[in-house]
Amino acid sequence: MSMEDGKKGARPAVDAAAVSRRTLMAAAGCSVALMGLGALKYAGTPAQLRPPGGQDEERLMAACIRCQKCFGACPRRIIVPAKLESGVLSVRTPVLSFDDSYCDWCAEENGGVPLCVSACPTEALHLPPEATAEKTIIGMAKIDQKTCLAFRDTGCRYCYDACPYDAIELRTDDGTNPRPYIIEDRCNGCGACESVCVSLTAGALASSASERAVVIRPIEKA
Amino acid sequence: MDKLRIAVSGGLFALLSIGIVAGLSTGTLSGFGWDAFSLLCPFGAVTSMIAAHLVVPRGVVSLVLMVAFIAVFGRAFCGWVCPVPLGKRISGFFKSANRRKVEQDERRERMLDIARHQLSCGTECSECASCKQRRAKLDSRHVVLGGALLSTVAFGFPVFCIVCPIGLAFATVLLVWRLFANGDVSILVVAVPALLVLEATLLRKWCARFCPLAAFMNLIGRFNRTFRPVIDESKCIESVSGRPCSRCSMVCEAEINVRHPEFGERTLDDCTRCRACVEACPAGALSLPLRSGRGVQEGPVTIEDNVDPSVLASKPAGE
User: Fold this and answer.
1) Interface pTM (ipTM) of the complex?
2) Where is the secretion signal located (chain A) (predicted)?
3) Domain A139-221 adopts which CATH fold?
4) What's the CATH number for A46-136?
């Protein structure tokens, strides 16, 4: 910038309209991008395993600001940030992972009041007053008979022993060792069975398996 | 003071990161607190409540507290708490010394030009249109703010939260920690920081030009009349000697021309209380007093009639 720009009477080129116009265009571009991001909602997202109080997917997505409080609030560390597979818009929202433990509504840690729900500052996780652990359906356990050790007649019954709701029964089919079956009416998707399933670690037989033999599946809304 | 600010914002970011790593439920700057006590990001609180059609007590309380804070301290959050300027420092660290110097000199010349222009202006201010405020009431940031709000209303969820750089910064900490502590491999460990870098490079001067949070604070900051920069005219080099100085304007982080506010990209409504101008003033003429009114008066500096024109072209004292 030369001295000429600063000559008497001449307005310095500092706020040259071109610069601010370009900035305005860029800002308008940002707005359009935000609208586009919002419109991704109609691309549809797969159903998720949500923490208690997050079963109303519409409400959770509307209120969650990705503050990450619930991840730390869960004493069992089963609430994890959703990944890209859950859909672009779900990324970083809370989902459940039953690798190490399961959800008992903080019965041991907080007398049956889920700590994630009380930690959520925007009430994205919210339980109606009459809600109970039994009736709040997180998902549904599904057994893969190809990888389940009990279906190889090993007599494995970890999931059966772990289920707090008696939602798994053992049946002997034609004189085989007992095999587990899910009683869907009783299963609320707490994840106790999945968290104890040893098929991946003990069942090197099923080398092609990428997940445990009993897995909680989200419930697809019709 | 500069170091103190890095310590405050960096320390807070580190503390909250430790909270994430230790698995405490302290949350992030988007939602900070324990148990029933919670301080929410004001913009997050607004968009979340609009989208969910809810009035959430913690959201309302946070909003009231934040508005009160902004009314007293303006955009101090941006200067003292927000981790985004820290990221800017880090990226600035990788700039070559040469490049940094060129940018600094450019800015210096620009500010001196403005100072010369105003100091050499012979006409009465009331008659001269060249220095008049031509600034629109709303700027590019408000366009982004509008887009974010519109998108939230149209699609029913807090859209901006997904790309908010503050949220992405804390998400990066969480994802990297989960990668090492839980062996949780996910493309997000790369994608989230990449998005952050993309935003920083594509949208340079994010804080002054695009940040909707800054736009939100600007709207409330307009009613702020405390702790704004005030120039003691009896000390200011430009006022006393008529020589261009404008050091205060050269160092401002918020793109404010402190000495000649009508020429800044932003006005004093956007002061982040970083105190850089106070420290840069060679004459000690600047302060941020409790009762500052509107701060530095808008309009040209008044100087004596008999200023030697030769000094106008000279560099300020001490260079």
Assistant:
1) 0.89
2) none
3) Alpha-Beta Plaits (3.30.70)
4) 3.30.70.20
